């Protein structure tokens, strides 16, 4: 990055700056005229000097330069104008003054808009460049980079820089010319008043900036402390599990409290210093009017200055302090922003970044990695300078299956990271064929080498998004350039942003070997199934939502499966397992609110407790006279819950069964119940009534068994259902997708669509029986692979936290395999698994790499015989060894229940895939 902020700004915004410069300079005559017109209005129109000596008319729209007495006096006529009367002159000059005020206002508006746009474009450019630099951090630099710090720099610390960029050149020019124009006007009217104003202005420019220098030091301290604070908060959040396991929350609070005190101390010093400076600045600014009134008034009384000139001088001075104050603020901001910019430049120093490669050279160098892997005199050191690898020469022909046998130190992992180009700080030489590993382009490494480490890195999104992440290296196809897309491209060119659109096609199907996206999904499912994650993906599919665009035709098949399931249940005498949704019947196993809506809410206003604030919903309840009865039910539920949960710890199973009230709400509801008993309904606030109203909406009589929902009340709820639907259907967006036995409910999970009802909780083994029947229907209709495709849309959450450690590890391995690298390096990726699963996954990897190479770090020699070649360490030296013959592969066994996730779903269909082989998925892939 350019070290000078002003040079960086000028390089990337010169054209826009010059255009605004021209407008600023062009606005000065209008500004000057707005200063001079008050003098003419007072002297010529109001006092009538233009009509002295019996003249009945005076020139209007004339233009003359009036020279001050210290420049010889007199005037130079430029334009003679037209002759008008006194009243016409007054109104003409007044409207002319208004015209110039409007023109000046419009010019300022245009300049400010252009400055803002310029600043935003430059900030967009700067943020993108910093993000691009972050993508170029070397592996060594990444060890010392805190993600929260980098994010804070890119998001927050460049914000004041971006705000200053638009003002960097334009603000001093605009403010300086305005101040100079006003000061020049004052000098023309009165030399002494002008010199007096100039003296006070000079004092401001000398004293105020010096007092503000200490603010820069404090600002720098605040910035560093804030950055460290953000990094520490990020560390605590990332390590929250350890904090909770070891109960160190009090210590963490104290540590964060200390940092906040340090920040407060710095910020308080800044505030004290800043307001002292502000006080002095305002004091100096207010002294000038005092001198103007005193000295200027004296000059007016003595005849050295006329009243019009004095009024004009005072009016002109009103235009002087604001630009001067803003100029001083600009200088302070300049120094402050330069400090921030210098720190940003230091953070993204060139020595921390990888070298940028030419795209043409990158394409030419993107050839398959073939030939022998040769390691010569390799030497590495740990972070403390102690040697890890002390040398040794190894040569292995590729493609091959190579094991790196650990000696109990970090040497094996270090070697694996070197081979994957995740560590570039080593001595010696590593070549593949005739190509040096260190000389390979970064794009070539990304396409030809894959690395699966001990900590899987998953991004927020779906399982599919993470699996195909390695296929999104370049945009394959552009999108159609409509008007909005063309505008985006224009702005991207102006700000140095990429012209590629994330909405375009990025998935490299050729690299994956799939002919289309359906085949790609099938290939993903095969890999996941072979890796032992197929059942989990199937379960995710049952609880997922169907995307009709991705899977056209699936909706009709699910509805057909729904009818077949219902027919089979009736044929086998098991129809009572599920109470189906019926427009004319109350579903006893659904909640009260679900019976009222008879559908799945799609609007946030109709979800959860927010529904009690929905005006239409409340209107229907009031119309059917249900509100008071539901509030009474809420009081009964709250009273029962407070009695049941009294003394129980948080996390007790009863809290899950009675999910009306959270543990931390018990005291609040106890107080509400007390108020309702003490003063009746009149003692309840509106908030109390809404909270009570929300409780019975989640009530299910067979589950909660509080005996508060009788048949008569159910009939009233059914009557309200009709009015509720009519009310919602009148709206442009009903906010609810209503249940229809012949149509898929897109807002409902797939398994809910299959069942189209609620499981009868009064039958002990209803879920198990339903699971068995559901498995038969799914097998009969061959829906397994389609359900698994829905499972690929399962959201993994931030950093994959919605997946187990086993699931994250498998997704990481499959992601590496999907892009079919020439060399796959596995380093500790199987650590979460037991010994039997490690053996199975090792065989899976050996089979899946096909004709390519696999390098895998082994903690011991138990699975060494599975590999063709091996590298070991003797006193830190690399040696090639033959795989130990005694470690013969063990017969593969089916995955144990301990190694996988137990399956089960809310409505009992999560094991419907049981007994289904992977043949259907393999056929789909073929």
UniProtKB/TrEMBL annotation:
Coiled coil regions in record: none
Gene3D superfamilies per the UniProt record, alphabetical: ABC transporter type 1, transmembrane domain (1.20.1560.10), P-loop containing nucleotide triphosphate hydrolases (3.40.50.300)
Sequence ranges assigned to domain ABC transporter in this UniProt record: 373-900
Residue spans crossing the bilayer: 18-35, 89-111, 182-208, 279-301
Chief localization: membrane
Sequence segments annotated as region (Disordered): 882-926
Compartments, record wording: Cell membrane
Membrane topology, as annotated: Multi-pass membrane protein
Regions of compositional bias (Basic and acidic residues) in chain numbering: 902-914
A molecular-function term among this protein's GO annotations: ABC-type oligopeptide transporter activity
Keyword annotations from UniProtKB, A to Z: ATP-binding, Membrane, Nucleotide-binding, Transmembrane, Transmembrane helix
InterPro entries xrefs: ABC1_TM_dom (IPR011527), ABC1_TM_sf (IPR036640), ABC_transporter-like_ATP-bd (IPR003439), P-loop_NTPase (IPR027417), Type_1_exporter (IPR039421)
Annotated ranges, domain ABC transmembrane type-1: 77-329
Highest taxon of the lineage: Bacteria
SUPFAM superfamilies named in the record: ABC transporter transmembrane region, P-loop containing nucleoside triphosphate hydrolases
GO CC terms, sorted: plasma membrane
Protein known as: Putative ABC transport system ATP-binding protein
Organism: Enterovirga rhinocerotis
């Amino acid at each position: 990055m350019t070290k000078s902020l002003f040079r960086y700004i000028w390089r990337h915004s010169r054209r826009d700056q010059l255009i605004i410069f021209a407008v600023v300079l062009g606005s000065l005559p209008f500004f000057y005229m707005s200063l001079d017109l008050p003098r003419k209005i007072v002297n010529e129109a109001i006092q009538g000097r233009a009509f002295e000596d019996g003249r009945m008319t005076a020139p209007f729209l004339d233009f003359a330069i009036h020279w001050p007495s210290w420049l010889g006096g007199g005037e130079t006529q430029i334009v003679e104008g037209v002759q008008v009367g006194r009243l016409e002159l007054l109104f003409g000059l007044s409207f002319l003054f208004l015209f110039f005020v409007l023109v000046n206002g419009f010019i300022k508006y245009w300049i400010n808009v252009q400055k803002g746009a310029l600043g935003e474009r430059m900030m967009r450019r700067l943020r993108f460049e910093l993000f691009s630099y972050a993508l170029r951090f070397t592996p060594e630099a990444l060890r010392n980079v805190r993600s929260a710090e980098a994010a804070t720099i890119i998001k927050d610390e460049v914000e004041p820089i971006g705000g200053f960029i638009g003002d960097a050149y334009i603000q001093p020019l605009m403010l300086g010319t305005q101040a100079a124009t006003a000061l020049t006007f004052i000098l023309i009217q009165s030399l002494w008043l002008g010199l007096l104003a100039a003296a006070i202005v000079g004092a401001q420019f000398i004293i105020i900036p010096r007092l503000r220098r200490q603010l820069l030091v404090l600002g720098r301290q605040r910035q560093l402390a804030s950055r460290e604070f953000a990094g520490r908060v990020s560390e605590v959040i990332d390590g929250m599990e350890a904090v909770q396991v070891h109960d160190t929350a009090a210590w963490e609070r104290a540590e964060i409290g200390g940092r906040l005190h340090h920040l407060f101390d710095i910020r308080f010093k800044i505030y004290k210093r800043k307001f002292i400076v502000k006080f002095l600045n305002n004091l100096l600014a207010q002294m000038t009017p005092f001198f103007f009134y005193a000295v200027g008034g004296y000059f007016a009384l003595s005849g050295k200055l006329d009243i019009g000139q004095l009024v004009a001088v005072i009016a002109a001075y009103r235009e002087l302090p604001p630009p001067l104050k803003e100029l001083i603020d600009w200088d302070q901001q300049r120094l402050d922003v330069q400090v921030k910019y210098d720190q940003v430049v230091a953070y993204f120093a060139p020595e921390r970044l990888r070298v940028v490669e030419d795209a043409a050279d990158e394409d030419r160098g993107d050839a398959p990695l073939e030939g022998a892997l040769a390691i010569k005199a390799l030497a590495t050191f740990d972070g403390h300078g102690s040697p890890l690898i002390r040398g040794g020469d190894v040569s292995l022909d590729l493609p091959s299956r190579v094991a790196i046998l650990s000696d109990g130190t970090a040497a094996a992992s270090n070697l694996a990271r070197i081979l994957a180009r995740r560590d570039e700080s080593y001595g010696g030489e590593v070549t593949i064929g005739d190509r040096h590993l260190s000389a390979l382009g970064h794009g070539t490494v990304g396409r030809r080498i894959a690395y699966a480490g001990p900590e899987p890195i998953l991004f927020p999104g779906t399982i599919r998004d993470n699996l195909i992440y390695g296929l999104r290296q370049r945009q394959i196809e552009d999108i159609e350039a409509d008007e909005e897309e063309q505008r985006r491209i224009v702005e991207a060119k102006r700000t140095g942003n990429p012209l590629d659109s994330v909405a375009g096609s990025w998935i490299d199907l050729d690299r994956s070997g799939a002919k289309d996206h359906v085949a790609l999904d099938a290939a993903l499912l095969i890999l996941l199934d072979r890796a032992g994650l197929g059942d989990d993906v199937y379960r995710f599919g049952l609880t997922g939502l169907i995307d009709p665009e991705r899977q056209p035709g699936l909706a009709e098949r699910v509805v057909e499966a729904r009818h077949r399931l219902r027919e089979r249940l009736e044929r086998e005498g098991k129809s009572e397992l599920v109470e189906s949704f019926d427009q004319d019947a109350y579903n006893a196993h659904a909640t009260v609110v679900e019976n009222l809506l008879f559908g799945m809410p799609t609007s946030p206003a109709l979800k959860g407790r927010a529904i009690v604030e929905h005006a239409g919903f409340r209107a229907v309840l009031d119309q059917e006279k249900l509100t008071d009865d539901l509030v009474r039910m809420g009081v009964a539920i709250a009273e029962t819950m407070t009695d049941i949960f009294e003394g129980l710890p948080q996390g007790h199973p009863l809290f899950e069964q009675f999910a009306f009230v959270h543990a931390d709400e018990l005291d609040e509801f106890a107080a509400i119940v007390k108020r309702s008993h003490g003063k009746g309904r009149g003692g309840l606030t509106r908030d109390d009534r809404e909270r009570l109203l929300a409780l019975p909406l989640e009530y299910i009589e067979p589950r909660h068994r509080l005996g508060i929902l009788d048949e008569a009340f159910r009939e009233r709820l059914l009557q309200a259902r009709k009015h509720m639907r009519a009310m919602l259907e009148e709206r442009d967006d009903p906010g609810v997708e209503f249940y229809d036995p012949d149509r898929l409910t897109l807002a409902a999970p797939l398994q809910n669509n299959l069942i189209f009802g609620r499981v009868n909780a009064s039958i002990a083994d209803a879920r198990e029986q339903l699971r068995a029947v559901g498995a038969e229907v799914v097998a009969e209709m061959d829906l397994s692979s389609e359900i698994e495709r829905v499972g690929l849309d399962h959201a993994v959450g931030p950093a994959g936290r919605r997946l187990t450690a086993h699931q994250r590890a498998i997704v990481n391995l499959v992601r590496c395999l999907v892009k079919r690298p020439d060399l796959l390096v596995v380093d500790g990726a199987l650590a979460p698994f037991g010994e039997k699963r490690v053996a199975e996954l090792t065989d899976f990897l050996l089979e899946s790499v096909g004709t390519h190479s696999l390098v895998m770090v082994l903690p011991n020699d138990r699975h060494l015989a599975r590999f063709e070649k091996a590298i070991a360490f003797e006193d830190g030296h690399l040696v090639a060894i033959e795989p130990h013959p005694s470690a013969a592969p063990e017969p593969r066994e089916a995955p144990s229940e301990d190694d996988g996730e137990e399956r089960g779903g809310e409505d009992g269909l999560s094991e419907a895939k049981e007994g289904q082989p992977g043949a259907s998925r393999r056929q789909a892939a073929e």
